[in-house]
Amino acid sequence: xxxxxxxxxxxxxxxxxxxxxxxxxxxxxxxxxxxxxxxxxxxxxxxxxxxxxxxxxxxxxxxxxxxxxxxxxxxxxxxxxxxxxxxxxxxxxxxxxxxxxxxxxxxxxxxxxxxxxxxxxxxxxxxxxxxxxxxxxxxxxxxxxxxxxxxxxxxxxxxxxxxxxxxxxxxxxxxxxxxxxxxxxxxxxxxxxxxxxxxxxxxxxxxxxxxxxxxxxxxxxxxxxxxxxxxxxxxxxxxxxxxxxxxxxxxxxxxxxxxxxxxxxxxxxxxxxxxxxxxxxxxxxxxxxxxxxxxxxxxxxxxxxxxxxxxxxxxxx
Length: 317
Ligand code: NAD
Prior knowledge:
Layout: E1 4-7, H1 13-22, E2 24-26, E3 42-45, H2 52-56, E4 63-66, H3 76-81, E5 85-88, H4 92-110, H5 113-121, E6 140-144, H6 148-161, E7 164-168, H7 174-179, E8 183-184, H8 187-193, E9 196-199, H9 213-218, E10 224-227, H10 236-244, E11 250-253, E12 273-275, H11 284-302
Parallel strand pairs: 1-2, 1-3, 3-4, 4-5, 6-7, 6-9, 7-8, 9-10, 10-11, 11-12
Helix pairs in contact: 1-11, 4-6, 4-11
């Protein structure tokens, strides 16, 4: 029996075609005015905010399948209240892609890639030695959150650059963190210790504004901070102020509190900030892997089995 699958955001053709081969698909172009919306049994979604009102229009909805890891755009309690499963597709190529994205930003900031590029293009060759460039090799790398993506980042920095790794993750025991090759630290200690900090936590009530003016003030003056997790975890005005005053060495930011950020965003004017448009995880392999993983979750639910990444098991009997 074909199901009605509403794919809210564009996904890789490998997954889209696999879903469309078996089911009736509502595409992002057809949108929420499509007359088949009430028949929807599966939603596939990336980062679009999912309104409760849209879920309420779908009495037959079985599952919301998140393409990716972060689920802060999905009203999970509302879905749970209606008996709708929510599953995500973390790990695999997506974790390695985001970790590579985080290390790319780390290196871009430490090596001041933006400013060096401008020196060449703007015929300012004589200024090339005025800027201090720093190493990742042998650096102290502090990870905030020590889940899948942070552990990939730790492996790249440790094995590839001989970096010392520390992690702050209050949900894990010190033994778990040590077993995965990092030194457990409290947040304040890690902020003062690290040369490069990378954030890998979900956006929740406990992580919103986790890094504000006080925390940035604990970093040493050459240290850099990278955020590929979610906007809203670093206080953006406080970060801009720390960068403007050169109280920290630089920042690499892939995610913003409001996306796209407004044209007058304070980070845009700062040379020691390297920015990217929420694409740390958007590589070809990662997009293909996540799209196929979404198709797998649909198949699993239709087979009457429990998806391995089910986030609200309380909906099951
Ligand atoms: P994960 O669940 O494997 O790891 C998250 C870790 O954060 C867990 O170990 C958890 O214990 C820890 N944590 C939770 N609350 C914390 C807190 N208050 N302080 C410190 N640690 C805390 O998730 P993951 O797959 O590593 O993904 C992490 C996040 O990365 C996602 O939630 C998502 O928001 C983001 N992400 C971004 C992109 C991108 O393209 N930029 C792509 C994928 C994921």
